[in-house]
Amino acid sequence: MSQQRIPAWITVGVIPLANVAMSALAAALVFWYLNINPLDALQAMVYGAFGSSYGWGYTLYYMTSYIFTGLAVAVVFQAGMFNIGGEGQAYIGALGVGLVCLGLGGHVPFIVLLPISIIAAFVFGGLWALIPAWLQAKRGSHIVITTIMFNFIAASLMNYLLINFMKPAGTMSVESAVFDPSSWIPKMHEVLALIGISIDRSPLNLSMFWALFVAFAVWFFLWRTRWGYEVRAMGSNASGAQYGGISIPGTVIMIMIIGGGLAGFMALNVVQGEAHQIKLNLVNQMGFTGIAVALMGRNHPVGIVIASLLFGFLTQGGSELQFEYSVDARIVVVLQGLVILFSGALQNMMKHPIERLYLRLSSNRRKTSEEFAAEA
Amino acid sequence: MELFDSIILILDATLRNATPLIFAALAGMFSERSGIVNIALEGKILISAFAGASAAYYTGSPWMGLLAGIMASVVFAQLHAFATVTHNGDHVVSGLAINILAAGLTAAVGNYWFSQGGNTPNLVSRAEELNARFEPIVFPFAEALSDVPIIGGIYSELLSGHYILVYLAFLAVPLCWFVLFRTRFGLRLRATGENPQAVDTAGISVTQVRYLALLVCGVLAGFAGVYLAVALTAQFSPNMSAGKGYMALAALIFGKWRPKTTMLACLLFGALLAIADRSQGAVILGFEVPVQLVEALPYILTVVLLGGFIGRAIAPKAIGKPYVKERA
User: Fold this and answer.
1) Which residue, A360, B52, B110, B228, has fewest beta-carbon neighbours within 10 Å?
2) What is the fold of A58-327?
3) Nearest-angstrom CA–CA distance, A207 and A196
């Protein structure tokens, strides 16, 4: 296109912001059509998500889940593959967490149980990703399709297990028994109350710190270890990586297990931290939202934390709109869809004009300074 | 005789279940054969079901519903083309965007229009003197023959008495085969999915072929959605497609991207759905097969096929790759 390089602040700053602005514009049109003043709606969303410790609690609670499912997509993307199985991997991860809490809750102290449930979340989620990974690595079946199929298989499997084995006798709703309270991950408002800070009750729990730590660990893994290097090498040029001695099938399987495990961590937040039981459809599309989070966060842990906060805001702020304007709660889904459309599917639409504009402006500037130099 | 009757009932339900799968899988075939991965079938079915039910309710005519459903689905399909072809967007991401957008828009706009939690009003209402649902087509002499053993079951129960869209779905299969494998457009479309460079070199616009392919895809997916909302149930309800788009994609892969085998895969999946609906699990060789396993079988079978354990499913070669013209 041109010899000139596009500086980083355009690629990671201006273009993503322009994409978000486009989705905001489209969202404004939808609101306007639904007879809601877009600016009022925005104000209601910001107030709903950040106006109180209650709002903050929900926003950060959703953020925690999105960090896990976003990282699950991003690590696999770094290897050049698409993991859209987060939905199923998180669901099976919840099975792992649930089994540990149901089996050990009340029998061992929390400090012993927590590491076991963390490992269980990772192992169960990771194992659910293993079969698609193995099929991709050894048999060449496309991982996008197999992970989609595994989402449905996970839903059926969980449905079967809940109805036949986990549902306590005599209850109508399809959910497991409530875990022993000693196995619950403490809520943030309870912990802060201990040191004298009072905030509103919300589902926010200590998993948030685990999410932030895991985001850091993923960064360390990808950019500071040999395996991370191999993953990124495979992502940027698979045949080159293979020529350099990296085992492609091995890397595929390793990164998919990590991705599945990260998705499984979501269960710590949702199941062990909030619901305290395994419920039907507990993942509730958050695995899919993880894809949007990874896209917006440009597959980098720092970006993912920021994007997760944005999606936490959308989820919590959007659900406030429901009370404010009696609009359907699924308006949140529209907002998410628009963000995926403009930041993901149509990301090149804004990219090329902005790059061209930058090049024209910068070459003009150079010309003027050259003219100045000539005059002097 | 009882066994015969229940087999007829299951086959009857199979045809009903397979219809939206066939339309959607054929829609996916046009898109994927031209090189565009289509995980957006779900969203296209959903948006056309909503538009179809709404238009049928307002006009009182199922045919207007069909028209509106097809138009809505085509708009989404062209948006899909705009993202994947014009802007070289990722096919999977574009598909997801369409699915999520359709799920949200149908519920939010539906609630705004009808204030029934995202549902449309029922299309058959005596109070409003409304009957905007497709009527079943009863074959001649079906009444008279219904008591004749065997023939009555097959003719009157199984073949007669379906909605017109059911028959159209089975007519669409040879029609799509003809278009894809016996016309110039079909040849160009398949070539675009295999080797877009060659198509471009021959002076044919890859962009145009792919836009047209997605146009046909939108029309066919529209039939699937309208069938769900205006024929099978006389109402739209949020997320009523319930994974049918993904199952159709599975059937397309299971049928190895060919019309006849894809139709057979749709019938197989339709039969599995019918069995899962009817029973609390089947007993096979003394083993009780859980109903959830029957439900998951279409996906399991597709994974097994993709693993190359039963035959081989080979996708169009250029699928999922944006085509960028070399710059001079």
Assistant:
1) A360
2) ABC transporter involved in vitamin B12 uptake, BtuC (1.10.3470)
3) 21
Q: Do A159 and B94 touch (CB under 8 A)?
A: no
Could you tell me the two tokens for B229?
A: 């909302």
Helix, strand, or coil (residue A198): coil
Predicted local confidence at residue B21, as pLDDT: 96
d(CA B282, CA B300): 18
Cβ–Cβ below 8 Å for B302 and A149: yes
List chain B residues with CB under 8 Å of A285: 100
Mutate to test the interface with A, among B253, B299, B300 (most CBs of A within 10 A): B299
User: Between chains, do B93 and A141 touch, taking CB under 8 Å as contact?
Assistant: no
The whole-angstrom distance between A54's CA and the closest CA on chain B is: 26
Lowest-confidence region among A46-60, B186-200, B228-242, B313-327:
B313-327
**A153 touches B at CB < 8 Å:** yes
How far is B111 from A111, CA to CA, in rounded Å?
47
Q: Tell me if B180 sits within 8 A of B297, measured CB to CB.
A: no
The DSSP element (H or E) to which B163 belongs, if any, is strand B162-163
Predicted confidence at residue B308, as pLDDT, reads: 76
> Is B253 in CB contact (< 8 Å) with chain A?
yes
Burial class (CB in 10 A: 0-12, 13-18, 19+), A108: middle
Give how far Cα A82 sits from Cα of A72, A116, A316, B68, B93, Å. 10, 29, 27, 34, 10
A279 secondary structure, DSSP code = B
Model pLDDT, residue A94: 96
Q: Which CATH class is domain B2-131+140-306?
A: mainly alpha
- Give A326's contacts (C-beta < 8 A, 6+ positions apart): none
- When CB atoms are compared, the residue of A146, A328, A330 closest to B306 is A146
Please give the pLDDT value at position A261.
97
Check CB contact under 8 Å for B104 and A333: yes
Concatenated DSSP letters of B174-241: HHHHHHHHHSHHHHHHHHHHH-HHHHHHTT--HHHHHHHHHHHHHHHHHHHHHIIIIIISSS--TTTT
Bridge partners, residue B125, by sequence = B130
Q: Do A149 and B303 touch (CB under 8 A)?
A: yes
- Tell me if A93 sits within 8 A of A265, measured CB to CB: yes
The verdict on B249 touching A (C-beta cutoff 8 Å) is: yes
Q: Do A142 and B303 touch (CB under 8 A)?
A: no
- Is residue B137 within 8 Å of residue B163, measured between CB atoms? yes
Could you state, in order of their start, the residue ranges of all structural domains in chain A?
A: 58-327
pLDDT tens readout for residues B242-281: 889 999 999 998 888 999 999 999 999 998 888 887 765 5
Of A316, A294, A68, the C-alpha closest to B96 is: A294
Domain positions in chain B are 2-131+140-306
Spans in chain A with pLDDT lower than 70:
1-4, 369, 373-376
| Pairwise CA distance, residues A344 & A117, whole Å | 34
Average pLDDT in the B75-85 region? 94
Check CB contact of A345 with chain B, cutoff 8 Å. Answer: yes
pTM of the entire predicted model: 0.89
Residue A288 with chain B: CB contacts under 8 Å = 96, 100
* Residue predicted with more confidence, A7 or B153: A7
Burial A218-251 (b: 16+ CB within 10 A, else e): bbebbeeeeebebbbbbbeebeebeeeebebeeb
The set of residues, in sequence order, having a beta carbon less than 8 Å from that of A26 and lying 6+ positions away, is A338, A341, A342
Nearest chain A residue to B303 by CA: give it: A146
**Which of 61-100 (B) contact A at CB < 8 A?**
82-84, 87-90, 92-94, 96-98, 100
